[in-house]
Amino acid sequence: MDPADLVERGYGPYPFRVCIENVTDFVKATGDDPTRWTGAAPPGFMAAALFSVASDLLRQLADRAVLHGEQTFTWHQPMTIESQLQVTGTVSRVRERGGTDFVDFEVEVTGEQGLVAEASSLFLVSAESGLAEVERAEPAPEDDGHPGPGQVSASRADLVRYSAATRDWNPIHWDHGAAVAAGLPGVVAHGLLQAAWAFVAASRARPGESPLRSAKVRFRNPLPPSVPVSVTVEETDGLAKVAIANDDVEYLSARIELTEP
Question: Which DSSP string corresponds to 63-76?
Fold first, then answer.
């Protein structure tokens, strides 16, 4: 399908239940604190709400390679456990540049008390897939690269567990052949898994169920599995700047507005 044909296409509204089982799986998959998130979902759980509608969009683009370029979230209320929500999505704009379509996808999550959260995704959709110039050998499924103190990483099995927790089944995150066909050296970590790591780090400075107001995340480079990275946070006047990087590459940068302490 030509992405330009999707402009103003709507998805949903779909029901979305914040059940304790799904939140537990998400917290485990992202390395968050299970003792903290018993009454509400962590901020990063918005990824599951997003993909309750974005999965339909990705299915329509199944013949193309899709990468996540940028993501914004705004949280208005906590996503309380067992709440019944509705999620709607809309393709707001498509731009083509150099053979790549830039697809803007807007999402709203609503509940009984009104607007719960909003999201805006920028997806990069390749017009043609091509084999990667350099193919990377797959690490063992449970090989996490042995992260050191202050580091995080994801094994290939971790990526599958995160896919199951959020329903983000883009094949570049779990199918080596599909990733190589999309021009990547192999499977890569979900951008929103890395965003969840950033949100976990930023949330430590704010207690309660609504630690974050908004976030703008840029995915700088694809992160392979089994590669340990450091998550650094610089906080100034209620704004956290988060970077995920190792000595060689920056993978993610984020500007996160924190709630009042």
Answer: TSEEEEEEEEEEES
Distance, CA of 121 to CA of 68 (rounded, Å): 8
Q: What is the CATH number of the domain that holds 119?
A: 3.10.129.10
Residue 68 one-letter amino acid: H
CA angle 40, 46, 50 (to 5 degrees): 145
Tell the residue number behind the tokens 């896919």, with chain if given: 163
Q: What is the pLDDT of residues 160-179, one digit of tens each?
A: 999 999 999 999 999 999 89
- Give the total number of structural domains in the chain: 1
DSSP 8-state assignment for residue 47: H
Q: What is the residue range of 108's domain? A: 3-258
CA distance 64 to 232: 34
Using CA atoms, how far apart are residues 121 and 118, in angstroms rounded to an integer?
A: 10
Chain segment 49-88, per-residue pLDDT in tens = 999 999 999 999 988 889 999 999 999 999 999 999 999 9
What are 126-148's pLDDT values in tens digits? Answer: 865 565 668 999 999 999 999 99
Q: What is the pTM of this model?
A: 0.95
SS3 176: helix
